[in-house]
User: What shape does this take?
Amino acid sequence: MSQTPTDLIHHPYTPPEGFSAPQPGVFKASTVIFPNVAAMRSRDWRQKNGYTYGLHGTPTTFLLEERIAALEGGKQCVLVPSGLAAIANANLALLKTGDEVLIPDNAYGPNKALAEGELAAWGITHQLYDAMDPADLQARITPRTKLVWLEAPGSVTMEFPPLAHHAHVCRQKGVTTALDNTWGAGLAFNGFDLGRGARFQPGSGADIVVQALTKYPSGGGDVLMGSIVTRDEALHLQIKLTHMRLGWGVGANDAEAVLRALPSIALRYQAQDQAARTLAAWLGQQPQVAQVLHPALAGSPGHEHWRALCTQDGQGGGASLAAGLFSVVFDARYTSGQVDAFCDALKLFKLGYSWGGPVSLVVPYDVASMRRAWPHKGVLVRFSLGLEAVQDLQADLAGALAVLAQTQA
Ligand SMILES: *Cc1c(COP(=O)(O)O)cnc(C)c1O
Assistant: This one.
């Protein structure tokens, strides 16, 4: 070996500037090298033009932060290792002992679990509110309420709440709001400016918008990541300070995977939306099904709120968007064992959590154990659409429904 290890590590060649390609480079670092001590002392980890340490950002993560902030219609973004970490980071930045947080009863389950676990242990109380009852949230706000979570639609049960009303109530009372925008993905509606057409109101939405980038932005079912987007610099810094103290970073290869998937997010979202609406409408006509829960279907809880927020003119006209996600309540004559057999009989729909990737997924839920009040007797199954051909998915569902009919006692 003619080289010493030192020559391999400190070789003078550096790649020339001026290389340009559709995809950005992947910069991986824990250590960031400073040109001199003055730079080391003067760079501030909060500034995007000054790299200090891998946990505080690299060109790859800063780029993804900028693009997610743009996707959500916000200004600043913090990246965390999962969607749940985004929820936790917002909670920890805003809440201290003696404070209270309000969470919709139909929120993403682990949000409630965190409140029941660590938050309760730290003397932070929570109340669950009925997201579909406009008066309920207002009645629960007290001087101790420091954060209100919003989510549209409800997780698994798909009720679309009057988001603009909830955000308005909180703003009037001076309470910070955080929206879990994983379903909308920054595409179906803008979490900071609610309403469409004549109903559009700038600044009428949430103060903080979080998203599980795990779902649509990643699009592959292979990345876990979350984002916390804001428009207010002081609020952003509060969240970023907590983020820095907790030591949460994301890997450069994962950030690159999301950057690679982002250009196709609108096309994928639209395709999965169309497939979901086609199959939701078809399932609604099948005798085994008592109700289909999909906010774009008339008769689904909160359909009018979805229409106001997610259709082009705010009144049901023009283009509209919804995630490729819906739930079905089976007729009460089917036992959970029979519905399990239906799920097992599906071949293209795979059994698995999460959504937003190319593979269609199915999960049976025991909703009675997840909600304070649940009006349905039948078993609920949640479907998420991938990118397979819709007719193949429909044939898969038809085959499994035939199995269900056979299992009938
Ligand atoms: C999946 C999901 C999350 C959590 O995302 P992870 O990356 O799996 O932690 C949060 N909120 C909603 C609405 C989700 O669907």
Notes: The two ends are 78 Å apart (CA to CA). The chain has two domains: 37-263, 265-406.
